[in-house]
Design a protein that fits this description.
Order of helices and strands: EHEEEEEEEEEHEEHEEEEHHHHHHHHHH
Shape: globular
Bound molecules: zinc ion, manganese (II) ion
Number of helices: 13
Length: 424
């Protein structure tokens, strides 16, 4: 066995919490909805329709990038990734190629190569000889996290993924619910021999449980070592995990990047992310799990096991903090949230609904503002014309009208940007 060293990298897709899809105003919550009820010309890729990026999805991507210690790109862009498959009506996916929003991070000892934003595809449903397509998921935002091949065994992959999901839920970027498809895992595996780095890579697509990832990786390592032991080379390919057979099966030989004919998305201007937004998002992240755990040990005198249990979920951790504020000692508060989880049953719901109400009132929703901007422009043609004629004061007036319509909930910066885009 020592002649063979498995090398594992990961691609993880998570659906960020947004209300609308990535480039249109259709609802992003597709799970369990009747087929093809949440679609529009943009997400169906009809000719003449134009995508407008979802600012909340962009912010969520940056937040995750920051939590993973990434560098955030001030200049970024979307690209078209072409491939022909019926779940993708445009014939290409809008993704990010050479200028992702986030790069070069590190989490739990694993280097993060990049974190980028893209759109999801529709869902194919095979029924006998027919294939049905549901486009509700088409255009839903997806954050893709790509690690360097820094992992060497299935068990540590599983541990890493569990910590990653914990972080993602903690900062409320995504529900990361694998059963509902809002977190999907794709390990790529190769085995290094005495001769050096492996000249191939096998990617296993769309696995939806940590247990399956572990099993699929172990199966794949064994399969590749068997081939390598015979002096042969496993082909570079994409494989699928078949749980009931306990093995991976070949799906297609792996494409090279040039097969996708990547080029810059011409319908979306390049993304400019200013430092002040990055700073603001960073400040709003608050205490990350690692810092919270360190503080629980250092300041509250908890053991590391207690600290892990107290911080196993954000809502439990917040409940613990509230108990401290009420004067309960740290040890006693820890005992309550660790040993009496039933006490929490009503609590986290209160916390969760409170958080949700707060979110909804302050979160900036680009997709929600766009139609209001449109309405304001139509009701104020003179101000619109004045702005186009160079009177910058007219812009302030128009922003003011949008604020009035949204009862002050619109982000003035975003509103300004939307008006400028619309009138340019
Ligand atoms: Zn749509
Ligand atoms: Mn992807």
């Amino acid at each position: 066995m020592s002649d063979f060293q498995p090398i594992i990298g990961l691609e993880i897709h998570v659906q960020p919490k947004t209300i609308s899809k990535m480039f249109c105003s259709c609802s992003a919550s597709y799970f369990g909805k009747p087929a093809n009820t949440q679609v529009c010309p943009v997400c169906l890729g009809l000719p003449g329709s134009l995508p407008v990026p979802n600012s909340l999805a962009i912010k969520q991507t940056i937040r995750l990038g920051l939590a993973l210690g990434c560098e955030i790109a001030e200049h970024s862009k979307f690209d078209r990734k072409h491939y022909f498959y019926p779940d993708l009506p445009k014939g290409y996916q809008i993704s990010q190629y050479d200028l992702p929003l986030c790069q070069k991070g590190e989490f739990e000892g694993v280097q993060i190569r990049r974190v980028h934003l893209e759109e999801d595809t529709g869902k194919l449903l095979h029924q006998g000889r027919d294939t049905l397509i549901d486009f509700n998921r088409c255009g839903v935002p997806l954050i893709e996290i790509v690690t360097e091949p820094d992992l060497y065994e299935a068990a540590s992959v599983k541990k890493f993924l569990q910590k990653l999901r914990h972080l993602i839920r903690w900062i409320e970027v995504s529900e990361a619910d694998m059963e509902k498809g809002s977190m999907r895992l794709e390990p790529n595996i190769s085995v290094r021999t005495k001769e050096g780095l492996p000249p191939y890579k096998v990617e296993i697509k769309n696995i939806n449980s940590f247990r399956f990832v572990e099993r699929a990786i172990n199966y794949e390592i064994k399969r590749q070592i068997e081939i390598l032991s015979k002096g042969e080379l496993p082909p570079q390919e994409t494989r699928g995990w078949v749980e009931n057979k306990g093995r991976t099966v070949s799906q297609r030989t792996k494409e090279e990047a040039h097969d996708y004919r990547y080029f810059p998305e011409p319908d979306i201007p390049p993304l400019e992310v200013n430092q002040s937004l990055i700073k603001k998002l960073k400040n709003e992240l608050g205490e990350l799990p690692k810092q919270a755990q360190a503080r629980l040990i250092r300041e509250c005198g908890l053991s590391s096991q207690e600290a892990d249990l107290v911080s196993r979920e954000k809502s439990i951790f917040e409940y613990f903090n509230r108990l401290l504020l009420e004067g309960v000692s740290a040890k006693e508060a820890a005992r309550i949230v660790i040993h009496k989880p039933n006490l929490l049953e009503s609590e986290p719901k209160v916390v969760a609904s409170h958080l949700k109400a707060e979110k909804e009132s302050t979160v900036v929703l680009g997709r929600e503002i766009a139609p209001i901007v449109e309405k304001v422009l139509q009701q104020n043609p003179k101000a619109a014309a004045d702005f186009q004629g160079g009177k910058s004061g007219a812009l302030q007036f128009l922003i003011g009208q949008v604020m009035k319509e949204t009862k002050g909930k619109a982000d003035p910066q975003l509103t300004s940007q939307l008006i400028k885009e619309r009138l340019s």
